[in-house]
Amino acid sequence: MPPSATAPVDSVPPSAPQPRNGLDRYFKISERGSSVAREIRGGFATFFAMAYIIVLNPIILGSAKDLYGHQLDGGQLVTATVLSAAFSTLLMGVIGNVPIALAAGLGVNTVVALQLAPRMSWADAMGMVVLAGIVVMLLVATGLRERVMNAVPRSLRKGIAIGIGLFILLIGLVDSGFVSRMPDAAHTTVPLQLGSDGHLNGWPVLVFVLGTLLTLALIVRKVPGAILISIVAMTVVALVIDAVAGLPTGAWGLTVPEWPGNPVASPDFGLLGQVSLFGGFGKVGILTGVLFVFTVLLSCFFDAMGTILGVGDEAKLMDQDGRFPGINKVLFIDGVAVAAGGASSSSATTCFVESTAGVGEGARTGIASVVTGLLFTVSLFLTPLATMVPSQAATPALIAVGFLILAGSVRDIDWSDLTLAIPAFLAMLMMPLTYSITNGIGIGFVSFSLMRLVAGRGREVPAAMYVVSAVFVFYYAMPALGLT
User: Fold this and answer.
1) Helix 418-434 vs helix 437-454: angle between axes, to the nearest 10 degrees?
2) Which residues of 357-477 form beta strands (DSSP E)?
3) Which residues, at least 6 apart from 306, have a Cβ–Cβ distance to it below 8 Å?
4) What is the pTM of this model?
5) How far apart are the C-alpha atoms of 125 and 276, rounded to whole Å?
6) Are the CB atoms for 450 and 165 separated by under 8 Å?
7) Number of Cβ atoms within 10 Å of the Cβ of 129
8) I need a surface site. Which of 73, 250, 457, 472 has the fewest CB within 10 A?
9) CA 303 from centre of chain
10) Angle 315-375-108 (CA atoms, 0-180°, nearest 5)?
11) How far is 253 from 456, CA to CA, in rounded Å?
12) Residues 270-297 pLDDT 10s
């Protein structure tokens, strides 16, 4: 997630001028000290900063198999990813009137691909995403979302965010072939190794290494759209290498870098509506199903809340008390986006922190989101270009995203309070080490409740945290109780 651009933008003037026309009045352009030109520029900046998701989401979801061995089609996944991003971002712009763009969340898509799908069908897994979105909307409608948010300590929320970042980073290293799982026949306690045989070799790995260095260098230079630039550049390099070296089938993995005969094609909506709302509960049981929905909910919940508040603060949309006027409307749209992502089979759609790139260019209103949404709509017809990008060219983005999540969160953990630091530490480590976001969240919650009880501070733990911790304890005890 590239840092926002550094172009200076004046804050909203104390006395905003009168609106010049209906467009100005509806979007509050003058009131927020912006202009149509700034909004358009900001919309483009946000799109180019986050367009990498068009490539990454299909790779993450398309590389997994469901309980029955089925894989989702890459072209259909590109259409689903772009469609949900376009719909949700346009909705946020027109109704929410904030410069926040949305797309399939990196983190929750790994939950769907690696935890839900292997236990059920893809339709069942996407149904649980839709249910999570419905729960988000209900929480907002009843005013409970902010209360639930407040029940989890800030340090633990940051630990969860860091854990997701580390998990994403590990997935990038594995999917690129930079590290690989040690075969069971090796009889070693080391679970991972460098490359496929303990060494780095092969052109695809070189593409990943060069892509990672390029991505990080562009981020250090604060180049807007750093991730997208790197993906495009390394895809070109991969095309040249594959054409000249003539690599064997399977060398690149699922996606071979070959120029399509026709870069423009009609979108394939085959995955739209392929959802079973309650089928997954029949596969994994009620309790496990509820925990899966809860995990998806939590993965979207805190990321979206932090992004909305962060973008709102940078865009000077907060009031004098530090509150975001109209935040419930924005949060409700986020819930709709989660459900829409599941309904399109692109996984949960959520707010992207790359929206700060547009804010840095001057965006202050929903017009920027409308521009970004329209650009995603145009992308619907460029599926062949997106599906030619090999994972080695795209996964450097996961390394960068993982680092930026960690860098933006680790300083906010209160390391002096061990009842907060230990749960945050366990949550952030258990996600990559157990290859499970659910485990990280569960262990973090349970350890927080226990640490506060041991320290004689049990009354400081919200009742909701005790309830959720108890559910996780029961979940972990189910195999020993013979319930799985």
Assistant:
1) 160
2) none
3) 157, 161
4) 0.73
5) 8
6) no
7) 32
8) 250
9) 8
10) 70
11) 53
12) 999 999 999 999 998 888 888 889 888 8
